Amino acid sequence: MYKQLADVPESDRLETYAAEYEGQDTWTEFLEMYLFERYNSDRFKEDARRAGRYWKAHMETCGRHHALATPEDVETWMAALLDRVQVKTAYNSYWVRVERFYWWLQWHTDHPHVYHPPLIAAAAGGAAGTVWEEKISRGRDTDNA
Fold first, then answer.
1. Which of 11, 71, 117, 137 counts the most CB atoms within 10 A of its CB?
2. For the whole prediction, is pTM greater than 0.85?
3. Sign of CA dihedral 115, 61, 76, 56
């Protein structure tokens, strides 16, 4: 597990895969193939779609595909969220979805992800670290997708 982007070999960095992801809606694929198979209430689906819309819009402003984030992209997203919502909401409504998305990408063989940008961002502290602390403070398995 990489703890900082500088440790990831250049050839494994997500930006090298931009052409392969162009025009793909990987978030919707994740929802339909994975997340909604496990959690299927209407409210859950709407919350997951909302998180995805916000994440994808943020990544568009960063000039990158939503599946190819840098830790800095995650940090700026969390900082913007924390300007609007409480830490608990940022964690429950947004962080868990994007964190799960990147776990899915890492373990799904069709994707080249060998590192997890949200976890690297959290390890660096800042806003992402604050949201991570919310997760840790719960003291139990807090993966509520």
1. 117
2. yes
3. negative
